[in-house]
Amino acid sequence: MKILKGILILLILSACGPVKNATKLDLKKMEREGFSFRIENNWASPMGDQVLNQLSMNLPDGSSSNAINLIGNPNHFEIIGDSLSVKLPYFGVRQMGGGYNRDGGITVKEKFSDLTISNIKKNSKFIKLNAKSTEGENFQFNVQVFENGTTTIYVNGSQRSAITYRGEITEWDIKSEQDKTLKKS
Hints:
With 185 residues, the chain is an alpha+beta fold. It has one domain (23-173): Lipocalin (Beta Barrel). The protein has four helices and ten strands; from the N terminus they run H-H-E-H-E-E-E-E-E-E-E-E-E-H. Strands 1, 2, 3, 4, 5, 6, 7, 8, 9 and 10 form a ten-stranded antiparallel β-sheet that branches. Strand 8 and strand 9 form a beta hairpin. The radius of gyration is 21 Å and the shape is globular.
């Protein structure tokens, strides 16, 4: 009976071990052959500010002034070839402009510039690029991509305080609309 209990305990403990993610990105291949991917973020972490602390009562459930839950809030960061498409909600202080009736988020649909890819650790890549928003604001995006598909995006804008997004790659090797059209014909 003691042996049976011991075996049962071992089975239970081994079932509680860490689960490895089945999808492991080939980061070396990504760097060699180019990449296209889409990131959807679950969390935003604005730079701490007194104004944001005062508004924290208006944030979604489960959020605080330095960790805002984005689940259910449509957003994306997408690289296809040499183009960047970004639609991210923004929480923080904007130093200049903005105008009336404008979307307060970060919106980019342009070709990016100054792309650099570097290794930080064995299991991650650091992608750095610059782009201009549809309203003319300059952004620097620093994207850390891990082998398990999780990501961290650090965003610095020329007119706003910095913000960080945490999410995961939801699509890999996306084809541009032009590529899709060529395949149909």
